[in-house]
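Hey, I'm writing a tutorial for new members on how sequence and structure tokens pair up, and I'd like a real worked example in the thread rather than a made-up one. If someone can provide the structure for the chain below, I'll link this post from the tutorial.
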Amino acid sequence: MEIKMCDETLEFYSPVTVENIIENSSVKKKKNVMAAVIANQVYDLNEIITDDTEITPIFINSELGNRIYRRSLFLVLAKAVYELFPEAILNIEISLSNGIYCELKKEKNISKKDIYDIKSKMKEIIEADLKIIKKEFSQAELLKIYENQNCDFRKKLIKERGKDLYKVYELDGYYDYFYYNMVPSTGYLNEFDLHLRIPGFILLFPKFFEEKIVPPFKEQPKLAKVYLEYEKLGEILDVNNVVDLNQVVADKEYGELIRIAEGLHEKNIAKIADQIKGGMPRNKIILIAGPSASGKTTFTHRLSTQLRINGLRPVQISVDDYFVNRDETPRHKDGSYNFESINAIDLELFNNHLLQLIQGKKIELPVFNFEKGIREKSGKFLFLKEDQPILIEGIHGLNDRMTETIPQDLKFKIYVSALTQINIDCHNRIPTTDTRLIRRIVRDNQYRGQTASGTLELWTSVRKGEEKNIFPFQENADVMFNSALIYELSVLKNYVEPLLKQIDRTDKNYFQAQRLLKILGSFKAIPDNEIPLTSILREFIGGSVFR
């Protein structure tokens, strides 16, 4: 049997596991391999290979490898909690403070001793290098297992999905279901930490695209506050997970859910407009930043409307028109242009123009000719009056290098992102990045003629740019706006599922499409006819009054 991998060919004379193939290869740091791609599908390392094939290892510093490491750690965490507190319910919730925020629902509040005990138990499980085994059960068998494991939150979803067979992972007699592959044994998971953060704790692990090193805990009070507000909305609406949302859909009560979610958006945008108005005439420069598909464009339009209601007359400046000429644009290591680098912007000209405007001077706005790759004069002039703040939307808005010559008290910074908090169940969270990816697949297809595979192909590069240029500056914001809508994946499902299903097994992005389809399969669909034309969701599905 001939196996091709990483420019080498290996020969085996009998069926062999992927893990054994890796062990016999020249790959360095073998424990950094989390899984493998074979024929455009993801294989666990303990799966058996019987035919000639080509294998691509998935390393921990890749986005997918990092997900597998995280989810495998979740399994170890759940096992440790079950052994120490069998009556407690573990909630794995949100990305926060360089890790994942979790809560433990039990009789007494969590303590430092609890964290010490959980961490010690996890280390014990990891050092024992216990096998993680994928198993298949009928619905009746799985329901019985979860009955014994105090998993009522799982039983509802299983009954709702109504499948005949379910694949779950076993760890030393403990069974759990995750939407991702797992490492073959706990010995792969030697890097982690726990940090108490009342009322819960943070699970820390190596970060995407970096070495296998656990980053330090980093307090993010502003981000945590936004998540708390979203959690309260879920409690008010009695929609805390997919099962609750699906019940609303089944009862055809989603119209009220849409109106409340959209009303909350409008209320929060109005509050931000009030803050800006209250700080005038000092709030001259309004900087709006956020990652891809966060809804920045619609947010900026709606904020402009609210500012006008407050008696202001905002103007907008496009950062894209301040790009340096193409021959001066920074490049990636592979030679391609890096338009997301802050050095792709003529910072000197941009700052000079802002300074002139806030000093009451007139400027001629530039315009970037994307066909020629050069900046040109536009013939359009701008002069600000006292009631005219400048709205500037761009990924670098929270980075002070972007506006380094502007005094801090003249700037008002806003961070926009789709901070999803509705999870499939207590142990299967829906990452914010997946919500944004689904949004972007729909938008790219609607407005840019891009296939779902094309968007998936670009996503890793987009994510690396966000990790470098956006997320480190989140807490610099004066205010954060959560553009997530509690109902949106039920609507986006109608648009994105057909696009993902077009990706067949011959496409190298097939496994990513299947992963997203598995997540969307838990949601009941909601029609889009009741969504307002001003909704942020319209930026992606179409019909926005702002386009």
